[in-house]
Structures are given as structure tokens and as C-alpha cells.
Specification:
Helix content: over 70%
Protein name: MFS transporter
Number of strands: 2
Transmembrane segments: 20-45, 57-75, 87-105, 111-133, 145-165, 171-195, 207-226, 238-254, 274-295, 315-332, 339-358, 364-383, 481-501
Number of domains: 1
Order of helices and strands: EHHHHHHHHEHHHHHHHHHHH
Membrane topology: Multi-pass membrane protein
CATH class: Mainly Alpha
Structural class: mainly alpha
Domain Major facilitator superfamily (MFS) profile: 21-505
Radius of gyration: 22 Å
Organism: Actinomadura montaniterrae
Length: 511
């Protein structure tokens, strides 16, 4: 990997130039992260306007992250070949254009397709940001702080999505959550063209299209199987998707081992610190994304808050993630990476454990505490693991390592919505509607909590209220189950991170 033309690095000889460039990169990170969660509060409005099924609603929520996760490794390799700056600016322009398609979608199928295209554009953005940071900040201490800011913007963007959505939905229709991307992307393209240095591999070899297709097919097939199994059990469809996805991923790994110029050097995963950091990275984001997704629905559809109130209620997660993301590098220097990562994961596990007793009347102090803990834990864990992932590899492999880091992030976000979002839906489908409820209303209530709210409104009177109360109780029961499972997974991961990372620190060479 090399910094691009001789004139480009000169802009970054001064500290101010480096940090201004980081500010430009943060714009891209914020928008991609916000768009992963901003639809949480818009779900009831989309349900009312486009009438999606429960399965379609989940796809609207998570297909964006699925596609990004499937393409990040491929786009990281493409950036090494054509230049990360060029890929970033091209992706930014495409992201803005596709945002318009999302805003004016006329049916659930069109919105799912538009969200998938937005995922393609987002995948071109993300590998470029961390790879450019790795090359702009050559000093290890400065780079740790820069990665902490980068990670904070990721966590803050994901957690702030509901707040942004709430502010817009108070005054505009649901499509406005996409149109807000346009002015920010315009600033990113203009400023990025002037301020960012180019970065590419001088001898990258060809870009392998079959590897890109295998990566995408493997990721989407595997994650779809998990989502289908969480929502409907071990169906033949889920089994077929799992077999196809795992086979594609196995073929992808085999192909990378045999190519002279692979999209990613799979030997990176032989290093225990690298592999553990990737796993912890993914699970930290899984916990935060899942929590924000299901609490967005809980606040609105179970507790009856407005979109703005629900967004403000989730603000502690944003604050916690930003503060600890910025403090993560200092905490690592004072202690160790394993202490910070394990503590962050344990805090997230405790946050979910607090919600294991959730019910419709749960007071806000408990929810505030859980959100603050989850955000703080995610900030510590994600900032530290992101720095480890790019620091544990040689500089020339920064593009591949950054793609792995962001794949873990997006896969975690997709799984958070797929698993932690599907379990409440699956559990609530088993609730018994009140006696005398029309078959159509009962079917709508079983499909999703949004469908239950619409059916109850159509019924009206005591019958509608009884149906809505039963659906809310069933949804809360699903959230309790989800919180318990998520807490167990994150606490177990915290223990594993403590054991496997030992005293490794960001900047320590890989084994």
C-alpha cells in the first residue's frame, strides 16, 4: 500500500490537515451508520403506507446491512486497485442518488430493492474510510485517537439514527429520512475531492469478479438462513439457504488461498488477536443494533410514544458510545486491550440482562440505564477492536483489514436486526387473540406489532383495545426472551475476549 501521488501527502504534513481529512471521512461513516438504524422509528409509518408483510418489514430493515456485509471485502480489494479516494467519492455520489429512490418507493418490493442498492453504494464507502485513516495517520498514538473518533462516529450514527428519524418524522413523511443524505453527500464529494489524499496498492493484481460474487452470495445466504430460522424455525428454505451460503463462503476462502492476488489474505485470521478482535467487533455491534431496533418499536408501539419522544429516549446510547469511543485509546494505554474490550462487552451483556424483565409498563429509569450501558460498552469495544484489526497487520494490507473490520460491523448490524429483531416477532406470533376478534384482525396482529396496531385501530372500541393489549404483552414477552439470549451471548464473549486477547495492545505486530 502506498500513499498516492507525491503532492498529496504534503497536505498532511501538518496535524491540521490530517484532522480535517478525518472530519471528511467521518461524514461518510456517520451517514452509512445512521442509515442502518434510521428506519426503526419509521417502521409504523411504512407499515401504514406500503402495507408490507412481517417478513418484508424485516427485509426493509436489514437488507441494507446484508448487502454491505456481502460486498465490503470485495470493495476493499477494489479500493486497493483503483484508489480508496476514487472509490469513496464514487460511492458517495451513488449513495445520494439511490437515497432518492428509497424516499419515493411506492411499494415494499421497490423499497427493499432500493435499500439493497443503497447497500451496494454504502459498501463502496466504508473500506475507504478506515484504509485512508491507516495511511494518513502514521503515528500509532494519533492513529489510535483517529480510529477512536471513527468508531465513535459509527456507534453514534447507529444510535442516533432513531433520533434523526424522530425529528424528521415529527414534521415530514417517512421518505424524508433518506433525503437528508443528499446535502451531506454533496459536502462530502466536494470536500473529499479537495482534501483527501489518494491511497492504493501500486501492484494490486486483477480484481477477481468470481470472488466478489461468492462473497456476496455466501454472506446473504448464510444470514438469510439465520433470519429465517429465527423467525420460522428450521424450515427447508432456511436449510437450503444455509447450505448454499456456507458452500459459497467455503469456496470463497478456498479461492483466496489459491489466487496470486486475492481480495483478502485469509491467513490474517491465523492470528488469534486478529480473529478475536473481529468476533468481538461483530458481537458488540450486534448487541447495539438489535437493542436500538427493537426498543424503537417498543417505545412507539407498546408504550405509545411519538417518534421524537422515542428518538430522545434512545439518546443515552448515543452519548455513551461517543464518550467511550473517544476515551478508548486512553483506557487501553492505562490498562490493556483485553480489559477494555471485555469490559465493554460485559457492559452490553449487563444492559440486555436488565431488560430481561421488560414489560409494557417498564419505567424509563431502567431503560435509560440499559441504553447508557449498552452505548458505553459498544463504544469501548468497537473502538478498541477496530484499532486492533488495522494495527495488527502490515500497512500494505490496511485495505483488506479495514474491509474485514467493516464487514464485521455490518454483519453484526444485520444479525442484530435479523436475530434480535426476529425473535420478538416469532414469539409474539404465538399469542392468543381475545375471544371474538375477527380472523383478519388476528392474522394481522400475529404478523407484526405494527399490524396489530393497525388492526386494533380498525376495530376500535373495547375489542380493538383488547387486541392491542394482548399483542403488546406478547411483543414484550418476545423482547424479554431476546434480551436474555443476547445477554448470555455477550457475557460469554466478554469472557472469551479476556482469555484470548491476553495482554495484546493495538500496534503490536501480528503473530
Amino acid at each position: 500500500m502506498t500513499t498516492a501521488p507525491p503532492h498529496a501527502p504534503a497536505r498532511h504534513d501538518r496535524a491540521s490537515g490530517r484532522w480535517i481529512s478525518l472530519g471528511v471521512l467521518v461524514l461518510a461513516v456517520l451517514l452509512v451508520a445512521v442509515d442502518a438504524t434510521v428506519l426503526g422509528l419509521a417502521t409504523p409509518f411504512i407499515s401504514e403506507d406500503l402495507r408490507p408483510s412481517g417478513a418484508q418489514l424485516l427485509w426493509i430493515g436489514d437488507v441494507y446491512s446484508f448487502v454491505i456485509a456481502g460486498l465490503l471485502v470485495s470493495m476493499g480489494g477494489l479500493g486497493d486497485r483503483i484508489g480508496h479516494k476514487r472509490l469513496l467519492l464514487t460511492g458517495a455520489a451513488a449513495f445520494g442518488g439511490v437515497s432518492v429512490l428509497n424516499a419515493y418507493a411506492t411499494g415494499p418490493e421497490m423499497l427493499i430493492a432500493a435499500r439493497a442498492l443503497m447497500g451496494v453504494a454504502g459498501a463502496t464507502l466504508m473500506p475507504a474510510t478506515l484504509a485512508l485513516i491507516r495511511n494518513i495517520f502514521t503515528d500509532a498514538r494519533e492513529r489510535s485517537l483517529a480510529v477512536g473518533i471513527w468508531a465513535s462516529s459509527f456507534s453514534a450514527g447507529a444510535a442516533a439514527g432513531p433520533l434523526v428519524g424522530g425529528l424528521l418524522l415529527e414534521h415530514f413523511w417517512w421518505g424524508s429520512v433518506f433525503l437528508v443524505n443528499l446535502p451531506v453527500m454533496a459536502v462530502l464529494v466536494v470536500a473529499g475531492a479537495r482534501l483527501l489524499p489518494e491511497s492504493r496498492d501500486p501492484s494490486p493484481g486483477p480484481w477477481d469478479l468470481p470472488s466478489a460474487a461468492l462473497s456476496l452470495a455466501g454472506m446473504i445466504g448464510t444470514v438469510y438462513a439465520i433470519k429465517e430460522a429465527a423467525a420460522h424455525g428450521t424450515t427447508p428454505r432456511a436449510g437450503a439457504a444455509a447450505v448454499a451460503g456456507i458452500a459459497a463462503l467455503a469456496w470463497f476462502v478456498h479461492r483466496q488461498r489459491t489466487l496470486d492476488s486475492p481480495l483478502i489474505d485469509v491467513r490474517l485470521f491465523r492470528d488469534r488477536g486478529f480473529s478475536t478482535a473481529v468476533a468481538a467487533d461483530m458481537l458488540a455491534v450486534l448487541g447495539l443494533a438489535g437493542l436500538v431496533f427493537f426498543l424503537s418499536q417498543f417505545f412507539q408501539l407498546v408504550q405509545g410514544r411519538s417518534p421524537l419522544e422515542a428518538g430522545l429516549a434512545e439518546l443515552p446510547a448515543t452519548i455513551g458510545s461517543v464518550v467511550t469511543g473517544l476515551l478508548a485509546a486512553l483506557a487501553v494505554r492505562r490498562t490493556s486491550a483485553r480489559t477494555v474490550v471485555a469490559s465493554g462487552l460485559a457492559a452490553m451483556g449487563l444492559a440486555l440482562a436488565l431488560l430481561a424483565g421488560l414489560h409494557a409498563g417498564t419505567g424509563y429509569p431502567l431503560l435509560f440505564t440499559a441504553l447508557l450501558l449498552a452505548g458505553a460498552g459498544a463504544g469501548f469495544a468497537f473502538a478498541t477492536t477496530s484499532d486492533m484489526i488495522v494495527s495488527l497487520v502490515p500497512k500494505e494490507q490496511a485495505g483488506a483489514a479495514s474491509a474485514v473490520s467493516e464487514t464485521a460491523y455490518e454483519l453484526g448490524a444485520a444479525l442484530g436486526i435479523a436475530l434480535l429483531g426476529s425473535v420478538p416477532t416469532g414469539v409474539s406470533r404465538g399469542f392468543a387473540p381475545p375471544a371474538g376478534a375477527p380472523a383478519g384482525a388476528a392474522a394481522a396482529a400475529h404478523d407484526s406489532i405494527g399490524g396489530a396496531a393497525q388492526a386494533a385501530e380498525a376495530l376500535g372500541g373495547p375489542a380493538g383495545q383488547a387486541l392491542l393489549t394482548a399483542a403488546r404483552d406478547a411483543f414484550a414477552a418476545g423482547l424479554r426472551c431476546t434480551a436474555g439470549v443476547g445477554a448470555a451471548v455477550l457475557l460469554a464473549t466478554a469472557v472469551a475476549a479476556w482469555i484470548l486477547l491476553r495482554d495484546r495492545r493495538p500496534g503490536t505486530p501480528a503473530d
